[in-house]
Specification:
The complex is a heterodimer. By secondary structure, chain A is an alpha/beta fold. Chain A is 33% helix and 23% strand. In chain A, the strands form 3 sheets. Chain A has a 6-stranded mixed beta sheet with strand order 6-7-8-3-9-10, sandwiched between helices. A 4-stranded antiparallel beta sheet of chain A has the order 2-1-4-5, with no helix packed on it. A two-stranded antiparallel ribbon of chain A has the order 11-12. Classes of the chains: A alpha/beta, B mainly alpha. The interface between A and B is large, with 43 and 38 residues. Chain A: It comes from Vreelandella rituensis.
């Protein structure tokens, strides 16, 4: 089981004097959405949860143990991160790219075996990119690359999913497909945390929300309490209109 | 994709098929190149003669020629080429920049200045080698220290520091050539373009090449992950900073040893890894040993040509590596997808 706790955590956003102390519990089965305007620290928060960025103060605990003192390879077997930005320094095929998700499980001398390849292939098929397996990633469209990135984390099969704008570049159908995948992971006992720009995806697919304000303030709680029109208008500095469609609230910016 | 394709692509990849076949072909090529290098020269021997000498037979003249002159030089050429190519491949992953090369980072500049100072002072072979080694390591520390600065270093900062330090060394070298007495100039110029006739015993570079290949092999998959950026690598459980240090120090040692053995031979470290990437793909577990073999083969062939084309005069081997490598590389680049 994967469970993340933040204890007296203050994330380190450059140029910000201080920030709200975060005491969150991200439990298995929960789907957290992180919302906030540009520069509010969503990505910093996610990287801090993953142990890739040191917090200004406080600690992140993975299953009750401080993350910073755990073996990185062990952490990588439990915790997967979908990055918002990716580098491809050298040309690599989709197959090779997805296969690096198995890295944390293999000892230095071992090659990837049939088991790893089966997991990788199932992940490619799940993300609808199996037909691109032999293509170079650099020749793919933005949305296809995003799906390859998610397939890579699926190959890593973590019990904690941290996804930084997982629906970036995706068409409407694949946005829904990715959200279904994340919901499925949560239903199977994973903790899922995703940074989102789309309020409507958050309202439909998350059960908990963390709102990050540009001044470092933050508030969090179950979705039903957080989706207050006035709070969201304050968060984005934008007037919104809302209506219920298909059982979930929908927010539209208005002039 | 049909079901048959799916089953095929999911079948386990056998290590001997993905690694064994290309490495086998390259080993064979290396062996042939070395035999060729042993048999040609001022006095040509047939392959049978060479084989006889290697088995401990043959006449005394052939024995001296092959065992005391050609074998050490061929082995030294092989080791130097291998060291340079592996160092180049490592640097390219470290800096995630296809233009990275041990020489771009100022290593050969430092080594050259060291060697030229020793030559200007009228010193002999061992001192020149030692001085070159010291110059390469000093340059490594200088570049790394400066790139580190007061903050953390990034690939682009390290690359820029290296390039600037290298051009500084370039100016010092030109200055030294300008003020050197005329009779010392040819030796200096040959050293600067690479010259294996300085090679003494081939065993230190060969041993270093073997050791580094064995040590780096288990790091191959981590290097594959690091090539996708330090954050992605850290997220997949790679200890990024220790790995980067290991690569930098190994690549520097390899280059220092190569420069000490054969002077400054450009081009091998840049081109051989790219050629191999175009042909065998980007898996460092295959690219690194393949670099050792292909770099060695290229330099053995180049050195053979260098000492036979206008015999009894010798050409600087760096000229030949460039003349062989440039068209091959351009051709591979042209037809790659």
């Amino acid at each position: 089981m994967g469970r993340l706790d933040t204890q007296e955590l203050v994330i380190d956003v450059p140029g910000r004097a201080s920030g709200r102390v975060l005491n969150l519990c991200l439990a298995p089965g929960q789907r957290w959405g992180v919302l906030g305007p540009n520069g509010a620290g969503k990505t910093t928060f996610l990287h801090t949860l993953a142990g890739l960025k040191a917090p200004r103060s406080g600690e992140v605990h993975l299953d009750g143990k401080p993350l910073a003192r755990l073996n990185r390879r062990r952490v990588a077997q439990q915790l997967g991160l979908v990055f918002q930005e990716r580098q491809d320094g050298f040309p690599a095929t989709v197959r090779e790219t997805a296969l690096i998700g198995r890295h944390p499980y293999l000892s230095p001398w071992r090659m990837e075996g049939g088991y790893d390849l089966r997991i990788m292939h199932a992940a490619l098929a799940r993300m609808d990119v199996a037909h691109l397996a032999d293509r170079l990633v650099s020749t793919l469209s933005g949305g296809e690359r995003q799906r390859v990135a998610i397939a890579t984390v699926l190959t890593q099969s973590p019990t904690i999913w941290l996804a930084d704008e997982p629906t970036n570049h995706l068409d409407l159908h694949h946005q829904t497909a990715v959200m279904e995948l994340l919901a499925e992971q949560a239903a199977a006992g994973s903790a899922v945390v995703m940074c989102l720009h789309d309020l409507n995806l958050a309202a439909r697919w998350c059960d908990h929300l963390l709102l990050l304000y540009p001044d470092g303030e933050a508030c969090w709680g179950p979705c039903s309490q957080m989706l207050e029109l006035s709070a969201l208008e304050h968060l984005y500095g934008q007037r919104l209109a809302t209506a219920d469609i298909d059982g979930a609230p929908v927010f539209v910016p208005v002039r | 994709m049909s079901d048959a394709d799916l089953v095929h692509s999911v079948a386990p990849r056998h290590w001997w098929r993905s690694l064994g076949v290309p490495l086998g072909i390259l080993s064979l090529a290396a062996l042939l190149a070395m035999l060729f290098s042993l048999s040609v020269g001022s006095a040509s021997l047939s392959l049978m003669d060479v084989w006889a000498v290697l088995r401990g037979e043959g006449d005394a003249l052939s024995q001296t020629l092959v065992l005391e002159l050609r074998v050490p030089r061929t082995l030294a050429a092989f080791a130097t080429g291998g060291l340079l190519a592996v160092a180049g491949a490592l640097m390219q992953v470290l800096l995630r920049n296809p233009l990275a090369d041990p020489y771009v980072l100022g290593l050969s500049g430092g080594a050259s200045v060291g060697a030229l100072v020793a030559m200007l002072a009228g010193m002999g072979g061992m001192v020149i080698s030692g001085s070159a080694f010291a110059g390469a390591l000093a340059s490594t520390l200088l570049v790394f220290g400066l790139a580190h600065g007061t903050g953390s270093w990034t690939p682009s900062r390290l690359l820029l520091t290296g390039v600037v330090v290298a051009s500084g060394w370039g100016a010092v070298i030109t200055l030294m050539l300008a003020i050197s007495p005329a009779e010392r100039l040819p030796g200096m110029l040959y050293w600067l373009m690479g010259d294996l006739s300085y090679a003494r015993t081939p065993w230190p570079p060969i041993a270093l090449l073997a050791i580094v290949c064995v040590l780096v092999m288990p790091l191959g998959r981590s290097l594959n992950v690091l090539a996708r950026g330090p954050l992605q690598a850290a997220a997949l459980g790679v200890a990024v900073r220790p790995l980067e240090w290991t690569i930098y120090i190994s690549a520097s040692l390899l280059t220092a040893m190569a420069v000490t053995t054969a002077g400054s031979i450009g081009f091998v470290g840049l081109v051989v890894p790219h050629m191999l990437r175009l042909v065998v793909g980007n898996d460092q577990r295959l690219v690194l040993p393949a670099c050792a073999l292909a770099g060695g083969t290229l330099l053995v062939l180049a050195d053979t040509l260098a000492r036979t084309l206008i015999a009894p005069e010798q050409l600087p081997v760096g000229v030949i590596t460039a003349l062989l490598g440039v068209p091959t590389f351009l051709y591979l680049l042209y037809r790659s997808r």
